[in-house]
Amino acid sequence: MVAIGGVIVLFITLVVLGGFFLYKSLPSGNDAAAVPEGAGEEADPQAEALETGTLFVRVIGESSDVVVRVPGGDVLADTTLTTDEYLSFDESRILNVTIGRPSEVEVYVHGEHRDISDEDAGYSFTVEP
Whole-structure pTM over 0.70, yes or no? Predict the structure, then answer.
């Protein structure tokens, strides 16, 4: 008999808490609270500008393998990047770059966009300092 009473008290407590949190999640009568500050304004294009350096590779699709190395020397990066991840290098050395899925990335060399989206998988190119 005590167990049934405990279950009833627990059920009533959960209903009351559910009602309370539902009430707190409803928007207030203040319309300004429902609209984020700056909504409807266009972003300043230069506000999102990134330092592209010598080489800048960002994934705009799902993912891509990226390998960056110094010819005959160090491997600077050998990784798989996913959406919005990027690599940036500011090197005074020659770089060999291999992109696994060129259609998934955007590439900037010395700040200038290089369109490689039509290249085959495993596309490689060299970046001069």
Answer: no
